[in-house]
Amino acid sequence: MAASSKQTDYLAGAVMVLIGAGAVYTCTQYRMGTLTSMGPGFFPTVLGVILILLGLAIALVGTGQVDESPMAVLKHHASDRFDLRGWACIISAPIAFILLAEHLGFLAASFSSVLIAAVGDRTATMKGSLALAAGMTTFALILFVYILHIEIPIVRFG
């Protein structure tokens, strides 16, 4: 018997809450720092809290205590079949970032990982995907390199 959409939402939300709680708990071992001088535990803790909040919102939809209409905007059910292409692209994107950042630098890694993830969307055009990759790379460069001063080579040769 297949699980209903509400059961799936509830379980997915619960898993997200558990993963977020695990991230927050793990980050208690690291220095938090401040907003102006972030420690190694600050950003992962914030992401863990966001994951918990999103998981709770999704789980509430699954329990039926919240009307689905606001969440319907966030969902896209193109079909009920498993989309191998989408999953492969989403999983490949961070792997590509890790490998390319080490060998080619931040620009190539950012652009490639966004492009790979965008290709997973069957409705996306190549022109739109390239524009998204260029825009996200520019945003990431400004945010991580120039504002947050993350020490990563922008371009690496060899």
List the helices and strands and how they pair.
Elements: H1 5-27, H2 42-63, H3 69-72, H4 84-103, H5 106-119, H6 126-147
Fold and architecture overview:
This protein is mainly α and 158 residues long. It folds into two domains: 5-72; 84-147, no CATH class. It has helices at residues 5-27, 42-63, 69-72, 84-103, 106-119, 126-147. It is flat. The model has no long low-confidence stretch (mean pLDDT 82).
Structural shape: flat
Measured as a percent range, the helix fraction is 55-70%
Unreliable stretches, pLDDT < 50, 5 or more residues? none
Number of domains: 2
User: How far apart are the termini?
Assistant: 54 Å
Mean pLDDT over the full residue set = 82
Strand fraction: under 5%
How many strand elements?
0
Largest sheet properties: none
Number of helices: 6
Q: Helix- and strand-based class?
A: mainly alpha
Which radius of gyration do the C-alpha atoms yield? 19 Å
